[in-house]
């Protein structure tokens, strides 16, 4: 499929999605899109406190209109029970905890079995991290069902190493957990072969959207955890990175910010409506 490449590139080398709408329309041709979206940094700007990442009414309206013409899924590192009410649209699919916990319309439901087996280790690690980081000003330990997010955005630069050392040390103490990075956050997750990319392919299969001749999957995200989905969709779909990450990306196009995400989704409403 055109429009995507397995090679990683710097974000500033990518063509802009809004400047490439003719090319993207050509990739779609007469097929239907299925749109997968990260939440923080994609549908809402990055903020210092996660609870302040509130979806705008305008973005919610765009998501509602898009869901009227194609499948829309929010694939987030947040707990599903956290991100679902933040979006507040019953017609969307929600994949929380990087895809470990999925729910959608018409009884769609999946909780990845491999993650459930690691809940006792996560509980023990959470207790240890609270103890280790209690005296680090600005550090925040956020327990999710299938992960522990350790935020250090509000930690002084000279103390950030303490957070990172604590997280890696606790991970070493608990077999079956691994550390993954993000924007000023380190997460402990089950060390199993499941991520946003695999969750997207599970959804394509579960929703009967896995026919290349009928459907083109789109994924829009801004963080390193979204790279799993970008990589998985190389050669199969269209991936769009938000912003300018410092690391090379598997995305095929870029947009500058949340405002440009909204404009792109508005373009997709027209494309999806015409291909129904």
Automatic annotation (TrEMBL):
<keyword id="KW-0460">Magnesium</keyword>
<dbReference type="GO" id="GO:0005992">
    <property type="term" value="P:trehalose biosynthetic process"/>
</dbReference>
<dbReference type="Pfam" id="PF02358">
    <property type="entry name" value="Trehalose_PPase"/>
</dbReference>
<dbReference type="InterPro" id="IPR003337">
    <property type="entry name" value="Trehalose_PPase"/>
</dbReference>
<protein>
    <recommendedName>
        <fullName>Trehalose 6-phosphate phosphatase</fullName>
        <ecNumber>3.1.3.12</ecNumber>
    </recommendedName>
</protein>
<keyword id="KW-0378">Hydrolase</keyword>
<dbReference type="InterPro" id="IPR006379">
    <property type="entry name" value="HAD-SF_hydro_IIB"/>
</dbReference>
<dbReference type="InterPro" id="IPR023214">
    <property type="entry name" value="HAD_sf"/>
</dbReference>
<dbReference type="InterPro" id="IPR044651">
    <property type="entry name" value="OTSB-like"/>
</dbReference>
<dbReference type="InterPro" id="IPR036412">
    <property type="entry name" value="HAD-like_sf"/>
</dbReference>
<keyword id="KW-0479">Metal-binding</keyword>
<comment type="pathway">
    <text>Glycan biosynthesis; trehalose biosynthesis.</text>
</comment>
<dbReference type="GO" id="GO:0046872">
    <property type="term" value="F:metal ion binding"/>
</dbReference>
<dbReference type="GO" id="GO:0004805">
    <property type="term" value="F:trehalose-phosphatase activity"/>
</dbReference>
<comment type="function">
    <text>Removes the phosphate from trehalose 6-phosphate to produce free trehalose.</text>
</comment>
<comment type="similarity">
    <text>Belongs to the trehalose phosphatase family.</text>
</comment>
């Amino acid at each position: 499929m055109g429009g995507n490449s397995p090679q990683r590139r710097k974000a500033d080398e990518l063509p802009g999605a809004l400047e490439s709408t003719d090319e993207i329309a050509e990739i779609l041709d007469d097929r239907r899109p299925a749109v997968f979206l990260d939440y923080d940094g994609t549908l809402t700007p990055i903020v210092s406190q996660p609870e302040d990442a509130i979806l705008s009414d305008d973005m919610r309206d765009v998501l509602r209109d898009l869901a009227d013409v194609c499948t829309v899924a929010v694939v987030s590192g947040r707990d599903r029970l956290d991100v679902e009410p933040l979006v507040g649209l019953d017609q969307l699919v929600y994949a929380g905890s990087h895809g470990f916990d999925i729910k959608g319309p018409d009884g769609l439901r999946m909780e990845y079995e491999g993650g459930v087996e690691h809940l006792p280790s996560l509980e023990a690690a959470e207790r240890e991290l609270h103890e280790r980081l209690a005296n680090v000003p600005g550090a925040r330990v956020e327990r999710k069902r299938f992960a522990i997010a350790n935020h250090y955005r509000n930690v002084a630069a000279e103390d950030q190493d303490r957070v990172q050392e604590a997280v890696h040390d606790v991970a070493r103490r608990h077999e079956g957990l691994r550390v993954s990075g993000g924007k000023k956050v380190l997460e402990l997750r089950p060390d199993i072969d499941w991520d946003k990319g695999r969750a997207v392919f599970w959804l394509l299969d579960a929703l009967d959207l896995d026919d290349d001749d009928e459907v083109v999957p789109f994924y829009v995200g801004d963080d390193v955890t979204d790279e799993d989905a970008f990589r998985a969709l190389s050669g199969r779909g269209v991936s769009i990175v938000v912003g300018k990450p410092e690391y090379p990306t598997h995305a095929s196009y870029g947009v500058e910010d949340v405002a440009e995400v909204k404009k792109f989704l508005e373009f997709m409403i027209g494309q999806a409506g015409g291909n129904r």
